[in-house]
């Protein structure tokens, strides 16, 4: 089956043309120029042999990498610093106490085994703030008792079963689940705290997302090089490889956008995203 890749190629050609324009401007700026100095007496220019030293190519390496990562030759910095959208769904705005009480009614086995250790939320506090408090018990108050952690996991599982996928964002940020990675780990750390006139080392815990070795991030230079090679394959590769390269390139850019905006989702959902789902952020 043949696919019409010409629209995608036109987009890439336009993008590459913009990159060439940026490089041309850099070249004109970095070109050697005779330096002028002025006398103190009459401020007249004095010409000498000293010249402005152009920036080496390595100076632009990171900027070129970001251009490819953000797929924009001129405004990529605005994408880097664009405010992140609010990741907290409406589900977490509800009062936490009724949810906590419902959990106690439905998970009675936890209490029969005397595993209930997480404190009840204060009246009127939102579910989002309550989850933040539970996270701070671990990270700031060094709470790591097995019985406490077991009751916390039970409560989190209750919430996950009560929410749709698009509502799980806050929990996945605070308490990663095995559905999105290898789960969470409470790792022992130490922090420095002032007590009176002394600085003491205090034990604390960090909630870490356990991930596969294969999904660790790579250097931005390596990432941009992959994007460049995919782009070249789309435009100049073998006909039977151009479509696969175009799909991989689009998927890579989409994954980078999702990561930059800290959108909590899953790989299969990103891969199945339809064009109708996109909208302008302006």
| Strands, count | 4
SSE arrangement, N to C: HEEHHHHHHHEEHHH
The amount of helix comes to 40-55%
Summing up helix and strand content along with how strands pair, one would put the structural category as: alpha+beta
Would you summarize the structure shown here?
This protein has 282 residues and is α+β, with helices and mostly antiparallel strands. Helix content is 48%, strand content 13%.
Describe what this molecule looks like in 3D:
With about 280 residues, this protein is of the alpha+beta class. Helix content is about 50%, strand content about 15%. The chain has eleven helices and four strands. The strands form two sheets. The chain has a two-stranded antiparallel ribbon. A two-stranded antiparallel sheet has the order 3-4. Helix 2 packs across helix 9 and helix 9 runs antiparallel to helix 10.
Short key terms for the protein model shown above:
alpha+beta, single chain, two-stranded antiparallel sheet, 282 residues, two-stranded antiparallel ribbon
Topology:
Layout: H1 6-30, E1 34-38, E2 45-51, H2 61-70, H3 76-80, H4 96-106, H5 108-112, H6 127-139, H7 146-162, H8 169-174, E3 184-195, E4 198-209, H9 220-236, H10 239-260, H11 267-271
Antiparallel strand pairs: 1-2, 3-4
Helix pairs in contact: 2-9, 9-10
